[in-house]
Amino acid sequence: MAGAETLPWWAARLRAERERRGWNKHEMARRLLKATGRPYPPVTSLVRQILGWEKGEHFPRDWTAAYATAFDTTEEELFRPPPDLGLAGYGGGGAGSGWEEVGATKRRDALRLGLAASVAPAAMAAVLGEAATEAMEFTRLAGASAVGAGTFDHLQAAVAAIDRSYTSEPPAEVFAVARAYRARVHELIRGPHTLKEGRELYVWAAWLSELLAWLAHDLGHPLTAEAYAIDSFEHADQAGHDELCAWAADALASIATYTDRPEHAVTAAHKGIARAPDDHPIAVRLRAKAARAHARLGHRAECEDLLRGAEELHNRLPTEPPTRFGMDTGPLAEYAVTAYPASAFIWLEDYEQAERHAERAVAVHEATPSSDPSPGHVAIARIDLGIALCHLGAPDAAAAAGVTALESSRVFESLRSRAGDLDAALTARYPETGHARDFHERYLELRRAPGVRPT
Hints:
InterPro entries: TPR-like_helical_dom_sf. The protein is mostly helical. It has 22 helices and two strands.
């Protein structure tokens, strides 16, 4: 082992700078990795390299920028030889001193700074030779990837299957599958991949998180649902995928509405409106959700203005709207302009309008039941119809609508919440009627169930 007096000046400086900050070699490795923008060996391997650099065994040729960032200085300042050394390090200027590497670095810097004219012809030839090698390495690294062939085809098939099973399989089981795929995509993002692959991985991460947000919401865990919805929006935004940002904001708006945070729901819906294409059903849906949230706040003018906007966009949608993993998204817009107004007018205490919209929503669903990608939606429309009928003096019809809703093939947390509203209305206004008591018993059974009832 070389003594301190024989260390190359750069080795002694790297060790001194690290020790001055109180960092051990593992902390130095962590900070170097943090400073780099591309994958490097594991920390244990990097610790061994740091030991070699500080012993002067070899110069950290590819890590000079990372060292400068970690030490909060510049490469020029950190690797400038002491003025009294000339061209020699503490261990001399021969092989192993590191001066060859420093000289190569200085020649590359001279070329990069446009000072090539000051370099001797022989040195310039060396610089150009090194530059060719570097360019080849740059090209190799640009294509370096751990994303295997067929990965994206597999992800597309998997996400489509998860999206389809959302309405037909037990949500807890679907959640577990989607979560496993989301974790795998995260691993691929952290590993080596091309820039193009990175963007596509972010898109699939966002789709999976959007599905996980809805599943967690249906399972009655709003904190997890909101965390996944935020993650979905962030990854979609990083990927520049506006439509996917709108889907994520749509989930955020619903989660906020059903956790009694209408202000957050308004903000989330408008965040999505800003990104949604006007010719897409998601743009209709977001405006209707914003209207519903304004109604919860008692803002009738804003609510009605947004509902008109949603209806106008709905009327201008293409005859063949875009699909979502092969599924027709048109029914989502149709539901938005019928069922969401029903909920909105209930919160505005305009029960005649609410009844009219809820009946329309149920009729639309019954006319085209097979095309609705979310058949559980009609259950909430029936609950809203029941609430409106209760306030309009028809408790028997109200309870009957509620019972039909609870017989839905998919009972989820949002339905539980709205069923609670109908139960409260019937219990408060008509506590002695047989239909109200019957619905109350069914609602209590639903509340006692251990989880969301699968198909």
